[in-house]
């Protein structure tokens, strides 16, 4: 049996694109889709979905191939605390880190940002709004 993906539908939230059935998109999985010439990554991080442009604003790397991780807290010397587990993606080329929710970089959140998109689970489908 082959599932058919519906044609995109334009809504007030943007154009609705069904990426896949939720059951085919397990924790830790990610997809890169091309919509209107834009490469967009959709990631399932522990059951929470994120979508962001697959081009790093630094030098254009395929950002969504990067590692999803947390970051280090601001602590005194010789003290280390890992925080915000799985809230960031690290660029595979030079290691800049971007918050999955907002697309803002850790280093310069006001000036360096990657575009994010709304993604939702609706009637058992993973849906991206662009
Ligand atoms: S291209 Fe992403 S940090 Fe340089």
Overview of the structural elements:
With 130 residues, this protein is mainly beta. It has a single domain, classed as Rieske Iron-sulfur Protein. Helices cover 0% and strands 47% of the residues. The protein has no helices and 10 strands. The strands form 2 sheets. The protein has a 7-stranded antiparallel sheet with strand order 1-2-10-9-5-4-3, with no helix packed on it. It has a 3-stranded antiparallel sheet with strand order 6-7-8, with no helix packed on it. The relative contact order is 0.23. The mean pLDDT is 94. The structure holds FE2/S2 (inorganic) cluster. FE2/S2 (inorganic) cluster binds next to loops.
CATH superfamily: Rieske [2Fe-2S] iron-sulphur domain
Number of helices: 0
Going by CATH, the architecture would be 3-layer Sandwich
CATH topology: Rieske Iron-sulfur Protein
C-alpha Rg (nearest Å): 16 Å
In oligomeric terms, what are we looking at?
single chain
- Strand order, sheet with most strands: 1-2-10-9-5-4-3
- Tell me the fraction of residues in β-strands, as a range: over 45%
Provide a short characterization of the protein structure.
The chain is mostly beta strands and 130 residues long.
SSE layout:
Layout: E1 9-11, E2 14-21, E3 30-35, E4 38-45, E5 48-53, E6 67-72, E7 82-90, E8 97-99, E9 116-122, E10 125-129
Antiparallel strand pairs: 1-2, 2-10, 3-4, 4-5, 5-9, 6-7, 7-8, 9-10
The chain binds FE2/S2 (inorganic) cluster (FES).
GO molecular function: 2 iron, 2 sulfur cluster binding; dioxygenase activity; metal ion binding; monooxygenase activity; oxidoreductase activity, acting on paired donors, with incorporation or reduction of molecular oxygen
Pfam families: Rieske
Keywords: 2Fe-2S, Dioxygenase, Iron, Iron-sulfur, Metal-binding, Oxidoreductase
